[in-house]
Amino acid sequence: MNESNEKIINDTSKKKGDGKFLRGVLITLTCGAIAGGTFAGSFYLYNTKLKTFIEQQEDSGLQTATSTSSKKTLIKNNDVSGVVKNTMPSIVAITNTSEKKVSSFFSSEDRYQTQKSVGSGIIVKEDGDKLYIVTNNHVIDGSTKLTVKFCDNETAEASIRGNVAKNDLAVITVKLSSLPKRTKNKIKVATFGKSSEIKVGESAIAIGNALGYGQSVTTGIISAVDREVTTSDTNNTQKYTNKLIQTDAAINPGNSGGALLNAKGELIGINSAKYSSSAVEGMGFAIPIDTAATLINDMIKNGTRDNSYKDSEPSYKRRYRSYDDDNGYGNPGDDDSDDEFDGSDDGNDYDGSEYGY
């Protein structure tokens, strides 16, 4: 059984209170692993802290990938069917086929095992024979083959146009000539909103390929904006402080790269991760579209490729550390490269002793 990708973030916001603060909680990358084309759900229960990371930096710029004309459908009486109907043709499901090196006890030769994972994407531009789709870098990472499924269930192979690992963003392309006319007539380019204009408490809609079952919709509110977190790459060589959108709209494995929408159906964020802990509920995170826009446009225009991209080995890996009741995560005197805490209470008042997903 394959496992879903996961990562840890450290919330840098501070809060006062009594009791012991544990540093960091489990966050699940919302890209799910599948076996034989079917999602294989994974359950984790351990007294460890799993640590890989969200990689994103703040950026902004002119949105040339924005569709300027779109039917505006507002949410009324919590009915989002109109918004969903108008937006669903912009959302795709992505299957990543990759080869994983497997060590053999009986042979010194390298062996490779085919594995699949699922995610989501958003159509952001049509240009000539190319259809441009934005997703998360961790959705396409390590791929030997990418397959995109559209709103009418038509599938096509995709290629990577660009990726920026530290921002967890990637753009892939599909040849429009490879699609039948009925699919071309149904799909549409997403309309960009402005994440700088969203307010805490306003409605939010998340659409994505949850659990690899196909597109699904969840609703909630914007729980926080500019949620500042400190992250690092998987090699622990660089650290980033990023601002993400927090929502309580359910975000599940397979939702990575999917859309976070406002009440008008405008794209305000790219779903990326969620907290996963027995003590935490309803904490999903999305990359603000204002941050992503310049990078998306650069990848479309220049085909920017991140040097950290590796064709055969996924960059997100799991790292475990033991939990000690007296000292928290890690043991006294450990010189563990995974340790990033400065010894101060960081406000994450969760027991964290058992993580289940």
TrEMBL record:
The chain crosses the membrane at residues 21-46. InterPro entries: Chloro_Bact_Ser_Proteases (IPR051201), Peptidase_S1_PA (IPR009003), Peptidase_S1_PA_chymotrypsin (IPR043504), Peptidase_S1C (IPR001940). Residues 303-324 have a biased composition (Basic and acidic residues). It comes from the Bacteria. Gene3D superfamilies: Trypsin-like serine proteases. Keywords: Hydrolase, Membrane, Protease, Transmembrane, Transmembrane helix. Residues 302-357 are annotated as: Disordered. Residues 333-357 have a biased composition (Acidic residues). GO terms for biological process: proteolysis. One of its GO terms (molecular function) is serine-type endopeptidase activity. It holds the Pfam family Trypsin_2. Belongs to the peptidase S1C family. This is Trypsin-like peptidase domain-containing protein. It comes from Lachnobacterium bovis. The lineage of its organism: Bacteria, Bacillati, Bacillota, Clostridia, Lachnospirales.
